[in-house]
């Protein structure tokens, strides 16, 4: 069933995003606490959540800043890590292309992994709903407010417990990244890509400006592409035989 | 000041990436290879960041030793994630092992 008015549609979008809000909360807290333990000012941490609003690139920026990376490297990493949003946008485009430009800018800004998942599921069920953009806005704005709130909580938490820094809070980032990476490694091309990237990053770790990270990413992606094509060819050959 | 500029640049880049397709509409066509390549970006970037942090937490040589709490806790987190595939549990176990190893085993 579709939602009859803009307001009910907005509320439904926010409600259906609730599990995502809960899932994102700890990451907001960890991000805020990492900022409090970094060279960045507290307000800059909140400013980043307000302006950038893309969790993984925010984490990476803090990690790179801690490693004395240059501004161009951080911008390049932001670009590469956030490129996936273009794919999300391309998938959702047929449902927003009729909207005025200000709506498309706003919904684009609010696009995240979580809201994409919610919107993709919604549009599969309701292909021709008149208030779909209000549902999108409800999902996006609730994620946005949620991210600001938990960033702030993390910042205050980090200030209240400054010793967390000396204990090695940066391990929270390692654990977070492991939780994102490991589930993907059950696919062989992803596993090959990760191994290649890890080995490369290890041997190139002393290159300046974190160029080793960039090189490792390129090599890893190339290995992933080659191995997925190679596997596809093997499968095709087997199905013929 | 540099950090503020860094953040503003990040925001401009991210907004551009996110809104670009929505605003330009159907005039953009993605090459297939780019779609395939993007799938591998998160897994490679994140792995490339954590491998040096875990193997050489002091930024010097490789510390393949039980006295390296980053390594022990990372192994624990990987095992938990591989068996349960639960993100928050993975992070919690990783942090608990990390702090317990540092405080309880190494007394630092």
UniProtKB/TrEMBL annotation, chain A:
Its membrane topology: Multi-pass membrane protein
Annotated keywords: Cell membrane, Membrane, Transmembrane, Transmembrane helix, Transport
GO terms classed as biological process: L-valine transmembrane transport
One Pfam family matching this protein: AzlC
Bilayer-spanning residue ranges: 20-38, 59-83, 103-123, 135-158, 164-182, 211-232
Alphabetical list of InterPro entries matching this protein: Brnchd-chn_aa_trnsp_permease (IPR011606)
Compartments where found: Cell membrane
Superkingdom of origin organism: Bacteria
GO cellular component, one term: plasma membrane
Record's keyword annotation contains Manganese: no
Family the entry assigns: Belongs to the AzlC family.
Record's protein name: AzlC family protein
Organism: Collimonas arenae
Automatic annotation (TrEMBL), chain B:
UniProt entry tagged with the keyword Transcription: no
InterPro entries for the chain: Brnchd-chn_aa_trnsp_AzlD
Chain segments annotated as transmembrane: 6-25, 37-58, 64-81, 88-106
Record's keyword terms, sorted: Membrane, Transmembrane, Transmembrane helix
Metal-binding is among the record's keywords: no
Protein name in the entry: Branched-chain amino acid transport family protein
Organism of this sequence: Collimonas arenae
């Amino acid at each position: 069933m579709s939602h009859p008015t803009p307001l009910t549609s907005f509320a439904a979008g926010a409600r259906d995003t609730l599990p995502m809000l809960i899932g994102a909360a700890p990451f907001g807290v960890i991000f805020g606490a990492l900022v409090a333990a970094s060279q960045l000012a507290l307000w800059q941490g909140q400013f980043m959540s307000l302006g950038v609003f893309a969790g993984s690139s925010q984490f990476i920026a803090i990690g790179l800043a801690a490693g004395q990376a240059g501004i161009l490297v951080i911008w390049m990493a932001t670009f590469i890590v956030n490129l996936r949003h273009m794919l999300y946008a391309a998938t959702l485009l047929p449902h927003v292309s009729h909207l005025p430009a200000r709506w498309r800018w706003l919904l684009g800004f609010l696009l995240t992994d979580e809201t994409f998942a919610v919107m993709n599921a919604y549009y599969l069920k309701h292909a021709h709903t008149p208030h779909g953009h209000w549902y999108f806005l409800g999902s996006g704005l609730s994620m946005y407010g949620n991210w600001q709130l938990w960033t702030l909580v993390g910042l205050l938490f980090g200030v209240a417990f400054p010793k967390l820094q000396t204990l090695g809070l940066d391990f929270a980032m390692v654990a977070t990244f492991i939780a994102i990476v490991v589930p993907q490694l059950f696919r062989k091309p992803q596993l090959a890509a990760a191994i290649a990237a890890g080995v490369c990053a290890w041997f190139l770790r002393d290159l300046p400006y974190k160029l080793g990270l960039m090189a490792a990413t390129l090599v890893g992606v190339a290995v992933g592409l080659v191995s997925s094509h190679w596997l596809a060819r093997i499968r095709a050959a087997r199905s013929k035989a | 000041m540099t950090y503020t500029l860094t953040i503003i640049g990040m925001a401009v880049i991210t907004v551009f990436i996110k809104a670009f397709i929505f605003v330009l509409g159907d005039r953009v066509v993605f090459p297939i290879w780019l779609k395939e390549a993007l799938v591998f970006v998160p897994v490679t970037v994140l792995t490339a960041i954590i491998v040096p942090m875990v193997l050489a937490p002091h930024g010097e040589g490789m510390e393949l030793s039980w006295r390296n709490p980053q390594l022990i806790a990372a192994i624990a987190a990987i095992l938990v994630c591989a068996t349960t595939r639960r993100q928050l549990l993975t992070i919690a176990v990783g942090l608990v092992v990390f702090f317990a190893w540092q405080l309880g085993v190494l007394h630092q």
